[in-house]
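Record minuted for completeness.

…
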Amino acid sequence: MTGGASGIGAACVARLHDAGARVAVLDITDAPGADFSARVDVTDEAAVATGIAEAVARIGGLEVAVLSAGVGGSAPLLDLATAEWDRVMNVNLRGAFVCLRECARAMQTGGGAIVAITSISGFLSDRTMAHYAASKAGLAQLVRSAARELGAYGIRVNAVAPGTTDTPMFAPTAHLGGYRERVAARAALGRVGTPDDIAHAVVALAGLDWVTGQIVAADGGVSLHSPIDPMERD
């Protein structure tokens, strides 16, 4: 898997181990919980290909791939620098594409399951997050297109779309007074998500043999919030 050294990725490593899997991680930092860990930047195509080939050799094949590497970003559209747009796109969309392709090549003869981590931001419209939202919307469409094409090889491709989740990427919102409480109040289940919440969804989706091309929101119902709900009081 990619991005398995922290946050949602690290939780996925733990849950996959619980399910009896041997886990290889590609990340820019070491993943001590993995059976095999390699320092790989997903924006480096050659390094990704080499890392996945080595991981497959070390753990003895590839049945499930989790694409969790991602970065966030925030800037008003009028101030959004092209370099910042490229930084987010290169990791979240281009990097995910390269990893998906290389994992699919490794699964081509035996089939398998690929689960990407996208975001509910891919179908909502949050101010100052245009580049992040666009990258995650693109990833969702990549998942659907890949599922259609790779099904012939017995490869299922799905995605989990987290909402607000208590990860290092979420930490910078601490300076926004009351933000966490507002998000929790708007979630149908009444709280912010945890990495483990998302990891359980990832492992469950990877095990659904007759499901492909789906984007499953694991957000506690926060994306159900509607500002025109006649019962809304806040």
Summary: The longest strand covers residues 155-162. The chain has one domain: 38-222. The longest helix spans residues 82-107.
